[in-house]
Specification:
The protein is an alpha/beta fold. 33% of the residues lie in helices and 19% in strands. The chain has a ten-stranded mixed sheet. It binds S-adenosyl-L-homocysteine.
Length: 360
Amino acid sequence: MKEILQDLSFAQLQELMLSMGEQKFRAVQLYRGLLRGARISELSDISKSLKERLLDRFEDEPVKVREVFTSSDGTEKYLFELSDGNLIEGVLMSYKYGKTQCVSTQVGCRMNCAFCASGLNGLIRNLTSGEILSQILVINARHGGTIEKRAVTNVVLMGSGEPLDNYENTVQFLKNVTAEGGICISARNISLSTCGIVPKMYDLAEEGIPLNLTVSLHAADDAARARIMPVAKAYSIAEILKACENYFDKTGRRYIFEYSLIEGENTGKEQADKLISLLKGRPCHVNLIRLNAVKEKKLRGISEKEAYRFLGMLEKGGLSATLRRQIGADIGGACGQLRAGYLAQTQGQEKEKEANPQGQ
Ligand code: SAH
């Protein structure tokens, strides 16, 4: 694989231009072109010879849209192909205030949570910062967005992968995506979701990027959590809560817990009571999600009615909580489902029946 030009900040692009014997101002044209989601080969305002020299060293199209699936609720699910042929996925959700894109940070994942499809084949590799950024540039352009008027207004790092297990590249991406003069998405419109890699949560608090920190909790005690999330054996809930408090102290941002409702695992009154005593009075919010059942896994979700009952218990106990609208369930909306379905299909198995390819 060649290098990824989108990894570079504007200052690094300027240095690159100087090192290639070009004038510094060329970096402006190059940067604006890349932000428009253009390939290097499509850039019209740089010379043919510079283009050729860039193409010798850098990937022309690091993230390519391979397929788009559109859900009945308008959610779009993307299957992207990387330069080395690896597949990742992304989701674009439309809301009244704008569009939220869910991006992937790794090919696969090594966290192996019991309910999640992303880790089915383990971690394949980390994405570079430019590969994370390109997912947004490509989709923004497809939806008619520009640098001045973005179509993608919000970003969540909740696609496949564990962002804090790819810390350096994720932070570089966050710096580049929030940089002034760039695509410039405000950190306040960005949420990073982690399974709770505690030391990296402390590091993130020091980066000066006031994004929304989201932690996948999914259980209210360590034993129950360890049954569904292997990472719980490394870090306790108490340690996670301390790291969240530190994040709040350093950034002033309230934190969010994701809690996927899994039949027979974490939806009883006892778990609700434990969750209330853990979180009551803290500057946090709980997002309940009904599990999107993954066909390779045994775990199942619960009914909407049961989910509302669990929500009611939390609210009665004084927690700020919401039940997230289940979006894109008919197109394999949860992490890793689309890629897993696709890999299974290419291995001769049945393609996910519900998927509704819109083609390319
Ligand atoms: N690794 C990060 C981010 C990716 S997962 C993390 O663990 O937070 C984003 C969220 O989707 C997490 O809360 C994850 O637990 C949840 N999730 C994964 N698979 C799911 C499924 N099948 N149904 C519902 N939620 C799921």
